[in-house]
Design brief:
The protein is of the alpha+beta class. The strands form 3 sheets. Strands 2-1-4-5 form a 4-stranded mixed sheet, with no helix packed on it. The longest helix has 22 residues. It is globular, with a radius of gyration of 28 Å. The two termini are 47 Å apart.
Length: 460
């Protein structure tokens, strides 16, 4: 067996050669004591917990958790430590799950800055709890996802933010040129547990699984060394939270569909498209009432609005004001991009150009993977030029003396006159980064040779 890529059985330390030592739970069987307990349960109860504890489902859950990595939770255990814990404790953990008495540990509070200011609070479960949540997610998502609205795009298999943006674009093209842009205030922190559990109870009939989900919701939060209780919210950070958020907001989806409204929702970001401002104001008022009274959620009035689609942003994109609208990058997303590039290309950074390009390339590839879906390639071309100019200014700053600048430009096939003009100039690096000499010394092909990707292909 290849030691570098062991199969999942070896990761769990339950190899096939030692099947007598393999807990029956991971082979898909049942412990004798559990079997007798199962036989005493009413036949109408679903056996979803057995399905969750089935070996193939567990193997897939472990693969996903290991691939996602993630920070340690409240117990300090890393994902790499998880395999050893499962090897030693899985029979006991499995029995607790099947009896409905498993108790998750509190989540660890982590705050990360939001792009538009403030912080987003994440709740990081322990590696073991992430593994169990992932196993639960795989079973429930397979059952529930087909029942969700076709207008819901967030945290669902084979669905994406790009599809949500494309759907919104289609509604605008059909003539629905007013948008009801809803922003839910601290949605993930304010989900009502009783309402959520009521929705879940309508969808499954396994009391053990209901108790487990409730236990995850009420596990508490470890913050500043103290465990605080949680009586509302589904902390972001665990595999199960996105599915639970879709359960809550499925009520909103079904209500909007019942009314025949055109909308696209990605998690708590929902845009509804209507023909007129007056219709939009009616929809805003009625949907706000629905969210407040039925789901006990609060609409953020300062961030929500009835407006033209090209005046708002949706998932980082906006739209042009044309009969056939095009996707464009929202202004705030462009500004965040430039802020990040400025940070990565500071002229005072003590790194080489090659090191800078390596870090810059990783960011550009990720950004292009998402925002490359815009339909305004000229914007991307301008950003490419701007990034290259930042790099030219960085190099020019490193060449401190006029003599060094002249010599380096000559090495790069810049004519003597151009090199002398640039080297003797009194202008600063940013001004000279646009000069013919630096363009000749550092053309686009040079940056490509270092591995810097273009945001838009030259043929686009």
């Amino acid at each position: 067996m290849n030691a570098k890529r062991p199969n999942i059985q070896k990761l769990l330390a339950f190899p096939e050669e030692s099947r007598d030592e393999v807990p029956m739970a991971l082979r898909g069987g049942s412990e004798p004591s559990t079997a007798s307990r199962d036989s005493e349960r009413p036949a109408v109860f679903e056996k979803l917990m057995e399905e969750i504890c089935e070996r193939r489902n567990l193997e897939e859950a472990l693969r996903r958790v290991r691939a996602n990595k993630g920070a340690p939770g409240a117990d300090g255990m890393t994902v790499d430590d998880l395999v050893g814990q499962l090897k030693q404790q899985w029979p006991t953990i499995r029995d607790q799950l099947l009896q409905g008495i498993y108790k998750p540990l509190p989540v660890k509070r982590v705050e990360i800055p939001k792009p538009d200011g403030g912080v987003r609070k994440l709740g990081i479960p322990t590696a073991l709890d992430r593994f169990i949540q992932q196993a639960v997610l795989q079973v429930l998502q397979q059952r529930w996802d087909p029942t969700f609205s076709p207008h819901s795009y967030g945290f669902r298999p084979q669905r994406s933010a790009h599809q949500a943006v494309a759907a919104a674009q289609g509604f605008i093209a059909e003539g629905y040129r007013w948008v009801v842009d809803l922003d839910l205030e601290k949605f993930f922190d304010r989900v009502n547990h009783d309402i959520l559990m009521g929705r879940i109870a309508k969808r499954l009939n396994d009391p053990r699984l209901l108790r487990l989900i409730r236990a995850f919701l009420n596990a508490g939060v470890l913050e500043d060394g103290l465990v605080n209780p949680t009586d509302e919210g589904t902390p972001q950070g665990g595999p199960l939270s996105p599915l639970l958020s879709n359960i809550v907001l499925d009520d909103l989806d079904q209500e909007l569909m019942r009314r025949g409204l055109r909308f696209a929702r990605y998690a708590d970001d929902c845009n509804i498209y209507v023909f007129s401002r007056r219709a939009g104001e009616r929809v805003m008022a009625s949907v706000t009432r629905f969210l407040t009274t039925r789901l006990r959620l609060k609409v953020n009035e300062t961030k929500s609005a009835v407006a033209r689609p090209w005046e708002r942003k949706f998932l980082g994109f906006s739209f042009t004001n044309h009969l056939k609208p095009k996707r464009r990058i929202a202004p705030k997303a462009l500004e965040r991009f430039k802020e990040k590039i400025r940070e990565l290309t500071r002229r005072t950074r003590g790194v080489s150009l090659e090191q800078m390009v390596t870090k810059l390339s990783r960011y550009l590839q990720g950004w292009r993977g998402y925002f490359g879906a815009c339909e305004t390639p000229s914007v991307l071309r301008n950003l490419d030029s701007w990034v290259h100019r930042r790099l030219r200014a960085f190099v020019w700053k490193q060449w401190r003396s006029g003599q060094t600048k002249f010599a380096e430009l000559r090495k790069r096939n810049v004519s003597r006159d151009l090199a002398a003009t640039a080297a003797g100039s009194c202008h600063g690096p940013w001004r000279l980064s646009k000069s013919p000499a630096l363009h000749r010394a550092f053309p686009t092909a040079f940056f490509l040779s270092l591995g810097l990707p273009l945001l838009v292909p030259k043929t686009a």
